[in-house]
Amino acid sequence: MKKLILSLLIIIWFGLPGFSQKITKQSLLATYKQKMELAKKYNDVVGYKTALFDIISLEGTGSVYMDTLADYYFKSGELVSFILLTDDLIEKRPDDMNLLLKQAVAYENLGNRKEAVKLYEQIYSRQPDNMNVGFQLAWNQYQLKRIEEANQTLMSMKDKKFPEKVMVLMPGVKNKNEQVPLKAAYYNLLGLVSYDLHNLDAAIQYFDEALKIYPPFDMAKQNKAALELMKKKLESEPEKQETKPKK
After folding, report:
1. Where are the alpha helices (DSSP H) in the chain?
2. Do the domain assignments include residue 174?
């Protein structure tokens, strides 16, 4: 009788809430999400990433937290991981221009301009009025010495409206980058391409246009000064030949 009473007490005791909680997928997800928020709050990057993997492992690769992990990789500079993850996302969402653009930037920052150009071309073909993408495409084509292609891209942008407040990062003096208006950067690049296409006068005019838009533009100042000096030397050469004493 005593054994029966004890058994009943044990069953009742362990049957109480808090002593026999069934672990479900939803309860685990709630725990992992709470862990993720706490890690984010306390700037624990390892804990944050671990929690994301825990959530994705439960929800599968269709989880919306795949995008959260991609953003984490991108912002933390883990660009190879970002590209590998976004390959999976783009396979499911090939028309996601934001993902394609971020992947292009990632490839560019890794020094893989060829892959960056492929992606910028893909985006620009679908968004021909996106002047920022057009410029990035032309800039990378120029860096790859694909001058004719860069010129074609720039010419396709010439009569379109540029957003006024968009700034781009350009190389400055003493290895310091400078933020300049997109349209000023466009004319500076047009000047560089024109010079490579042996049109010195047009190149100087384009550098002038860049400086009218943004007078402190160091790169455009240097480019213009260098070409004006070159032009002066070229113009003085025939005079030297004429005054050269005959033998």
Report:
1. 2-14, 25-41, 45-59, 65-76, 79-92, 97-109, 113-126, 131-143, 147-157, 182-196, 200-213, 218-243
2. yes
Which domain, by its residues, includes 204? 162-234
**Structure tokens, 131:** 């002047």
- Count of domains in the chain? 1
The alpha carbon torsion through 238, 242, 244, 247 (nearest 10 deg) reads: 130
Residue 177 lies in a domain: yes
Q: Residue 130 in 3-state DSSP? A: coil
106 is a domain residue: no
Read off the pLDDT of residues 17-73 as tens digits, 9 standing for 90 and up: 444 456 798 998 889 999 999 999 999 999 999 999 999 999 988 999 999 999 999
Q: What is the dihedral of CA 196, 147, 178, 158, to 10 degrees?
A: 100
Q: Quick check: is 185 in a domain?
A: yes
First to last CA, the chain: 136
CATH number, domain with residue 192 = 1.25.40.10
